[in-house]
Design brief:
about 325 residues, alpha/beta, Peroxisomal Thiolase, Chain A, domain 1
């Protein structure tokens, strides 16, 4: 069997910066309130007039990742696209990427695991490469969330958190089994699904026409519901467990971690994990302060920035970890 390794990274975020002070002008909130609870200072929200979408942002990130990989686009064998905010209910954005890149008719798979989406997508790509089925796989995480959230005071517990953006990685075959992605670890616990959820408009026998007629402001079809305290408590436990699981699977200890890149859900979660694992600021990369929670895009954006800033070097043990709606969670252990 082969290992897989990341040979190209890229990210893209909209130009429009929305600060906490900007939000205080359209809802009852303050910079202090948001910063204290989430650590977020600003986020990127695509302007409608710019006509940016999940697909177009993912495409920009993908192009940069492919260019940095040194591969020709036609060497890509497969596409995996993680998102909760596709341009269309169906088809998914994977096929849009295949068409836009004008590459041969490779397979395209969409992953709907929300905040854990990129970790799941990397795991899928890793398995395809390990078995020899494909050699070069493009993995994308992208989200356009700002157009679908309630920006009034009613929705502030959600709207202040989420941002738009995209990140991408090109993965390829590595014949040295001591390098690249050493292992991935995935979990779910569906009994807590509704603690962080958005109902589909056509769920059950209620259709879009019914929802519009009822005009119920508490309807979950209009915005996500999140039991914040419950999600936080589960996140810190599952983050720790799945990181330790990954380390143990490879005979590693927490002291072996050179760089931890957690899903950027809440700076307080990342700080809790950092303290528990006794990691320095140089061993954990956070950028939620300037991007907010970009869901499936958060890890690839952070991974790209960490690499661009030379915070990751060859031979480093890099750990990716995520927790989110589902509940789903996972980790990736990498020898860079």
């Amino acid at each position: 069997m082969y290992n897989s390794k990341i040979i190209g990274l890229g990210h893209y975020v909209p130009e429009n910066v929305v600060t906490n002070d900007d939000l205080s002008k359209i809802m009852e909130t303050t910079d202090e309130w948001i910063t204290e609870r989430t650590g977020i200072k600003e986020r990127r929200w695509a302007k409608p007039e710019d006509k940016e979408t999940t697909f177009t942002m993912g495409l920009q990130a993908a192009k940069r990742a492919i260019e940095r990989s040194g591969l020709d686009k036609d060497e890509i064998d497969f596409i995996v696209f993680a998102t909760l905010s596709p341009d269309y209910y169906f088809p998914g954005p994977g096929v849009q990427i295949q068409e836009a890149l004008d590459i041969k008719t490779v397979g395209a798979l969409d992953v709907r695991n929300q905040c854990s989406g990129f970790v799941y997508a990397v795991s899928v790509a890793d398995q395809f490469i390990k078995t020899g089925m494909y050699k070069n796989i493009l993995v994308i995480g992208a989200e356009l969330q700002s157009h679908g959230i309630d920006k009034s005071t009613r929705g502030r517990s959600i709207s202040v958190i989420f941002g738009d953006g995209a990140g991408a990685a090109v993965m390829t075959r590595e014949e040295d089994n001591t390098k690249g992605i050493l292992s991935t670890h995935l979990h779910s616990e569906g009994k807590h699904a509704l603690e962080l959820a958005t109902e589909a408009p056509g769920m059950g026998t209620r259709w879009v026409t019914d929802i519009l007629k009822e005009n119920d402001p508490t309807d979950l079809s209009y915005m996500p519901y999140m039991n914040g305290t419950f999600v936080f408590k589960n996140a810190v436990v599952r983050f720790s467990q799945v990181i330790l699981e990954g380390l143990a699977a490879n005979g590693l200890e927490k002291e072996d971690i050179d760089m931890l890149i957690p899903h950027q859900a809440n700076l307080r979660i990342a700080q809790f994990i950092q303290k528990k694992f006794e990691l320095s600021d140089d061993q954990v990369f956070n950028n939620i302060q300037k991007y907010g929670n970009t869901t499936a895009a958060s890890i690839p954006i952070a991974l790209t920035e960490a690499w661009e800033q030379d915070k990751i070097k060859e031979g480093d043990t890099v750990v990716l970890a995520a927790f989110g709606s589902g509940f789903t969670w996972g980790s990736v252990i990498i020898k860079w």
